[in-house]
Specification:
One of its GO terms (molecular function) is rRNA binding. Belongs to the radical SAM superfamily. RlmN family. The protein is of the alpha/beta class. Helices cover 32% and strands 18% of the residues. It contains 11 helices and 12 strands. Strand 2 and strand 3 form a beta hairpin. Helix 1 crosses helix 2 and helix 5 packs parallel to helix 6. It starts with 29 loop residues before the first helix and ends in a 20-residue tail after the last strand.
Length: 375
């Protein structure tokens, strides 16, 4: 490389002293919701009705909750359904089938989520942190630093909002449902482990306790927090693990993904392999193609040899991502020729490989472009 890549210091913990988001039923299990109402002198059985409105009927207007007594309705809603986030702006691309929403959280922090409708599915890409502390230099989110972790309910609300839009026919194609969730928005999901796992559980819990989604439709991405990958392996929730690798060698990955200075490529891939071994779920290796940085033929061979060293039992799939360029960045997208050669070399090693169909780049809604600015 012609010049060193500049990175920011790694940040693992959010600033202290911040006020926590309001407690919401999505933060709580069904028994906890009931207990909270009873602590406040309200009928505990109303928790199930509130949960049905939120998760089952996707209602956001208390006036539509007609099975709640009018005299208690406001108090019940305030107890378990406080407002968590306010939409500031929604931008559309792909003839309206890609929608990026900018949200303002209760404390003024800004995050973004993206709803993408395809012919056979609808996916919500959610943020798990306001900002990100991983400092990957090619990612717009990482350059802004970490503001704070999001709560379980704040994460879930992004999915519920997308589900409402689909149910109400606000996305071209008629009424539908959200089938997939990817934790690939702002933040490093495994750096906010407790809230993210809580959100995953709310997504898969059957209605009215949750949205009743299939765990197989949920993808959790990480840049490689090995201790948390190991923890996820033992959770017993068969989500798809996506490892943002971006380089097959430590020298380069130390610069592109600074967390690599704590856990090496070998340690990171070993943890991903073990996740696949235990859960029987194929791992996705995410690899953003950057011109002249990580797209050389010898790195394709190195990546192929690394992944095949764990056997050929179908544990892994490589997802090449045409770099979503950020204005002012030194990083640019690889040529189609170099990307095709990368694919050819990986497939020659027996590694299944695809090129991601990037959507929303014109509204800065693609991977690595979420910066959550009001401008």
């Amino acid at each position: 490389m012609s010049e060193p890549i500049k990175t920011l210091p790694l940040v693992f913990d959010e600033p202290r002293g911040r006020k926590k988001p309001p407690r919401h039923l999505a933060d709580l299990t069904s028994p906890e919701r009931k207990a909270l109402l009873e602590e406040q002198g309200l009928p505990g059985f109303r928790a199930k009705q509130l949960s049905m409105h939120y998760f089952g009927r996707l209602v956001d207007d208390p006036e539509q909750m007609t099975d709640l007594p009018a005299a208690q309705r406001a108090e019940l809603v305030e107890a378990l359904l406080p407002t968590l986030m306010t939409p500031l702006r929604t931008m559309e691309a792909d003839k309206g089938t890609t929608r990026k929403t900018l949200w303002k959280l209760f404390d003024g922090a800004l995050v973004e989520s993206v709803l993408m409708r395809y012919p056979d599915r609808a996916t919500v890409c959610v943020s798990s942190q306001a900002g990100c502390g991983m400092a990957c230099p090619f990612c717009a989110t990482g350059q802004g630093g970490l503001q704070r972790n999001m709560s379980t309910a704040e994460i879930v609300e992004q999915v519920v909002a997308g589900a409402r839009s689909m149910t109400r026919g606000e996305v071209p194609g008629g009424p539908g449902r959200v089938s997939n969730v990817v934790f690939m928005g702002m933040g490093e999901p495994l750096a906010n482990y407790k809230a993210v796992i809580g959100a995953v559980r709310r997504l898969v819990d059957p209605s009215p306790d949750g949205l009743g989604m299939s765990a197989r439709g949920i993808t959790v991405s990480t840049v490689g927090l090995v201790n948390r990958i190991d923890q996820l392996t033992e959770e017993g929730i068969p989500v798809t693990l996506a490892l943002s690798l971006h380089a097959p060698d430590d020298e380069l990955r130390n610069e592109l993904v600074p967390i690599n200075t704590r856990w090496s490529v070998a340690e990171t891939v070993e943890a991903a392999w073990n996740y696949a071994r235990v859960t029987k779920r194929r791992v996705s290796i995410e690899y953003a193609m950057m011109r002249g940085i990580n797209d050389q033929a010898h790195r394709a061979d190195l990546l192929g040899d690394l992944l095949r060293s764990y056997g050929d039992w179908g544990w892994v799939h490589v997802n090449l991502i045409p770099l979503n360029e950020v204005p002012g960045s030194q990083f640019t997208r690889s040529s189609d020729e170099d990307t095709d050669e990368f694919v050819r070399r990986l497939e020659a090693k027996g590694v299944p490989t695809t090129i991601r169909d990037t959507r929303g780049s014109e509204i800065d809604a693609a991977c690595g472009q979420l910066a959550a600015t009001e401008a």
